[in-house]
Amino acid sequence: MTAENCHLIRTFYVLIQQAYSFMIRLSKLTDYAVVILSDMASHNQGQLVTASIISARTHLPEPTVSKVLKLLAKGHIILSTRGAGGGYRLDKTPDSISIADVITVLEGPLALTACAEGKEGTCAHEKNCAVKGKWNPVNIAMRQALEKVTLTQMISGGMML
């Protein structure tokens, strides 16, 4: 990691701590996706597994597990096989699945503010905003940090930044 990246990440955390008294939160589905992927990586090692088995092991409702699995398959993080004997398996090794990938599939593009996504008309104050378009270094630092965290690290608890 370069000194510039370290500085951007530190800046990101300082900005968040100073500017906001609330936590940036991911949706429950994103949290469940990491739980489901962790379960698949820990138990199945490339073998197909059904939503009902994952539901039983993770204690998550089966409809929720099915919904998350479909989203992960659509996002090319897992593979889906239909029919008798079908199920789901990881499409990549756990060390090549980043948390940024999972968040992007479940939440959409990583951006702290709507204007950072580059869409016009997302804010009533955009014409007079002094920081419009200036969130990009923060968004890049956040994305780079999340790209460095893999499913393997989440399972083992070992973080390598």
Which properties best describe this structure?
two-stranded antiparallel ribbon, mainly alpha, Arc Repressor Mutant, subunit A
Describe the structure.
The protein is mostly helical and 161 residues long. The chain has one domain (26-155): Orthogonal Bundle (Arc Repressor Mutant, subunit A). Helix content is 50%, strand content 5%. It has 7 helices and 2 strands. It has helices spanning 3-19, 28-43, 51-58, 62-74, 99-107, 136-147, 151-156, and strands spanning 78-81, 87-90. Strands 1-2 form a two-stranded antiparallel ribbon. A hairpin with a 5-residue loop joins strand 1 and strand 2. Helix 1 packs across helix 6, helix 2 (28-43) crosses helix 4 (62-74) and helix 3 (51-58) crosses helix 4 (62-74). It starts with a helix and ends in a 5-residue tail after the last helix. 17% of the residues are buried.
Strand and helix layout:
Blueprint: H1 3-19, H2 28-43, H3 51-58, H4 62-74, E1 78-81, E2 87-90, H5 99-107, H6 136-147, H7 151-156
Antiparallel strand pairs: 1-2
Helix pairs in contact: 1-6, 2-4, 2-5, 3-4
Task: Write a compact overview of the structure shown.
The chain is mainly alpha-helical and 161 residues long. The chain has helices at residues 3-19, 28-43, 51-58, 62-74, 99-107, 136-147, 151-156, and strands at 78-81, 87-90. It has one domain: Winged helix-like DNA-binding domain superfamily/Winged helix DNA-binding domain (Arc Repressor Mutant, subunit A), CATH 1.10.10.
